Structure of 6-phospho-beta-glucosidase:
Amino acid sequence: MGFPENFLWGGATAANQCEGGFDQGGRGLANVDVIPTGKDRRAVITGKREMLAFEEGYFYPAKEAIDMYHHFKEDIALFAEMGFKTYRLSIAWSRIFPKGDEETPNEEGLRFYEELFLECRKYQIEPLVTITHFDCPIHLIKKYGGWRNRKMIAFYENLCRAIFTRYKGLVKYWLTFNEINMILHAPFLGAGLTFAEGENEEQIKYQAAHHELVASALATKIAHEIDPENKVGCMLAAASYYPYSCNPKDVWESKKSDRGNYFFIDVQSRGEYPNYGLKMLAEKGITLEQTAEDTALLKAHTVDFISFSYYASRVAASEDSGVEKTEGNLFPTIKNPYLEASEWGWQIDPLGLRITMNDLYDRYQKPLFIVENGLGAVDTPNEDGKINDVYRIDYLRAHIAAMKEAIDQDGVELLGYTSWGCIDLVSAGTGEMKKRYGYIYVDRDNEGNGTLARSKKQSFYWYKKVIASNGEDLA
């Protein structure tokens, strides 16, 4: 069997991590622009340290990133050379609506993405567009408090109507919110939230998430109305939790941790809050402000497919005070003694991808789409200037083989695979450039120095071969 004939092979990026051009084309300032590198980065990402403008003494990597704003034609040509069937990217909200609450979109911003999508179409590359990938105009944070405010739903609706109308026929696959569950771990990044001392942060985060869920359902409704060909997916940071031991308490902890990941996707895929979630909110003393219209909208407009990121599995224990921790996607997890880890401490678990795929497919019975997966590593050019990133090839080979097993042996329905950071870009977690994921090397360092020249790594040629063989040749 193998991969379906129309399988969508490609790669993924996010506007704030690759685009740059933060003050060009009429673009407004966004939350992702004002997240610095260094010691305060995590405090800003989590809303503990309010930073709503550029401050002296900090470096802001997203301002220029890898300047794809001016290099997108060159970059898409390289993607086409690899044979991409799809390219996942995101729209910078503040390019379309610089402040976020305008009635009329910015034509220059609309035209930029139109040209980008036309460039994709020139090479028969299907754009897969994330509407909001950790992206919120600063004006909406300053004036309305970000997604804590219900008015955000209308502003998001305005964005969706503008892009669904303008790009009808150019874009068919859409994702509403990137890693929606990350709002609980990185609330400024995920929803433009900052917190004053004494505020009930849990209440605010779950209320903001409710607003995003309603906005997602509304986007799904509008997308289907404007073009019945549109397919809309949700997106979560996925990774099944293993119990630390066979102690039933550890098993129960892993079950609860999984539910924490699935909570918002349960709503987007099934159309209502799950009972365990309602109980959890009640235990936390959280009361969501919601309307009868919200309930009807969520129920009537569920997503067409489930997309997710997968980098590593996770481990849960009932008592974790004595267990060793390691790094993960924006937050740490318990170290699994059976797994090796990347240079950044992310555990490498290809079988975990197959397990996660089965868990998601069994739970939702909707097509899956892996929209992020990859290895962040330090890539050092040799004396010839070449990068022989065999470690990345090994990682990807094992994960693609696991995907194939999930399709062939388990019957999982998978639409496509877009590995993360197909071209080197700024790390969302650390803000570094040296943590590279790409098949394409970009000459830029952590301090913003470099020519921005693009060059092909060994993995570029390997992935080209994988795509040409539809996943059969992984050697």
User: Anything to note?
Assistant: The first helix runs from residue 15 to 18. The chain has one domain: 8-468. The chain has 15 helices and 16 strands. The radius of gyration is 21 Å.
